[in-house]
Amino acid sequence: MLAYNFILQLYSFPKSHLVTSQSRIVHLTAYSPFSFSFPWLAQACSINSISHRKQKCKSSIFFIVVNEFCERFSYYGMRAVLVLYLKYFLGWDDDLATTIYHTFVALCYLTPILGAIIADSWLGKFKTIVYLSIVYTLGQVILAVSAIHDITDKNKDGTPDDITLHIALSMVGLLLIALGTGGIKPCVAAFGGDQFQDHQEKQRSTFFSIFYLSINAGSLLSTLITPILKAQECGIHSKQQCYPLAFGVPAALMFVALIVFIVGSPMYNKTAPQGNIMVKVCKCIWFAIKNRFRHRSSNYPKRTHWMDWADEKYDKLLIAQVKMVLKVLFLYIPLPMFWALFDQQGSRWTLQATTLDGRITVNPILILILVPIMDSLIYPLIKKCKLNFTSLKRMTVGMLLAALAFVAAGLLQIEIEKTLPKFPGSNEGQAKFLNMVNRTLDISTGSTQFALEPFEANDYLTFEDSFSMTLGTNASYAVTVMDGARHTIAIIEDGHIPRHLMFKDITAKPEKGANAVRIFNGYGSVLNVTVGEQNFEKIVSNNISEYVMVNQGEATYHIKDDAGHKCDYTQKLGFGSSLTLVIKPDFAFGELKGDTIRGAPSNMKSVLQAGWLLTVAVGNIIVLIVAEAATLEDQWAEYILFASLLVVVSIVFAVMAYFYTYIDPTKIEAQFAELEPEEKNKQVNLKVSKKELVEQRNEVRRRSDSSVAEDNSHQMSEL
């Protein structure tokens, strides 16, 4: 989180929004989005002598802030469980789930450029927000529907019969969400800025403090609530983890955001599209490149900067502004590596969290706590110590802190992997033996021989396809194991002759730190066992129950037989274990054995924002490339690889920052202010010259046509 705070210093406007080019909003980035003074909402409007104008301003601000809170809740809530949905519901492995996740995030940060162009050049911000919010809401609804397993569960076994339909729906939903959320990113904050006049700088600053507070509040609450919703069990035919609820609530919040925004329509100050500065900048750059290539001969005099080749068509002020923008954009080149690490909170770190307690909510909490502390205490203290801690130096520190965070994640992964079992490969299976005979048994499985005490289990053994098993001295069996599966072989006694029962075990660590518990009934009667609200159903003798997920902590099992005898057994459970409770044949109610099997011009801010968002998109693409190219078997090694890459990039960025010269855009703009009339006259003269040239050509054509007509007429008269 500290790394994120430092990274924000070069560009105080956060990565999730792209401002447009209208003159009313260009001051937006002059204010830190986290300078929280927590004023009353009314302070966001100026005191106006006309009371209804004041009320109108209050109301419009309210609708925009509520809209942003709901939209951010919707987006971050959906993202909080997305990678888990891809892995556990669609059945994709960690790598594919991570790939799809980062592809989706990259799209979310590429589409804002399209949204800004649509808003500034065609529809205007209000209509763009409304239309793309409809697309956004539709995508959220489709994603929620794709998570309903019952729509294709014809045999009612709790598993979708046509996973292809669910994949298709989810991909369509994610595409619409990326288009919607990306499209409105450049518009909402800028539309809020439109509600103020140019002289209302203080009110605008207050509004954005409230605005960004709503963003972080929405993010915090959604990342807290959505995993809880997912953990609920729902379904028509069978109970499953409730992804429809986890996606449905964000969809409902997005619908609320849309309705709230539309309701406030009569109170908004809506500006007409005035053209997008990004388009103009791109045209200027393209003309300079094209003109430079056209005049590459040594016969033409050289120019100070390659952008100066655009002065034949564009005024000098615009060219100077583009130069300043390009200088800042050059500094953005190393930043994608930071976002490559930062956005893995939603993919690799979330998957890592499933081996712990499954919650990643500290970061948004720390954002709300630490950013004001940094702005009001740490940075002023550094300034008083007369240390020149510039924005670029803060960013360098931020990237190094992010690298350290990934080193910590790598060390944590090493410790996690020590507790994780080694699962079988695709061409092998594993089996362990549970001795339910009331004497020690000698067991042979080919090259492996061992003795197993009564009611004890050994560790898993790995086999290929099948193996021969000998129990005691005269009982031999051929056993076949499924590829990639784990089995428990329970040995019981049938007329003093041992025989075996085979049960399939789980091959994945339980989610959210819960424990997968099942019960083997070695008692001679049917048993009914409950723990909390979970019911193991009726377990017949010499059989094993299905797994039931039990939370960590003390678990009390209530056991009851057909005769009405009852018994309670309490066991302390850890995190993410797989356990089998064994009820012995000589079990007496009252006892139970538990056996565990375990710097730019103001009107260029939108261009910089486009570059800023592109660094996020490219960062997510880097995750895809590195993860695929590295092919590292151990996850901790991938964490260390990313950390090492960021350290190298941080050093490069530090060198770039050292040679960077800070420029005051206002001074540059002031120098060209006096030349503006001359530039305008130049453009006018250029247009007049072009017009005169066209008229001269047309006059020549008319004379030529007239001459031809006279000749034809003369020839006809002679005939």
TrEMBL record:
The chain crosses the membrane at residues 96-117, 129-151, 163-184, 205-225, 245-268, 324-342, 362-382, 394-414, 607-627, 639-660. The keyword Transport applies. It comes from the Eukaryota. Residues 706-719 have a biased composition (Polar residues). It is found in: Membrane. Keywords: Membrane, Peptide transport, Protein transport, Symport, Transmembrane, Transmembrane helix, Transport. SUPFAM superfamilies: MFS general substrate transporter (SSF103473). One of its GO terms (cellular component) is membrane. It is a multi-pass membrane protein. Its main location: membrane. This is Uncharacterized protein.
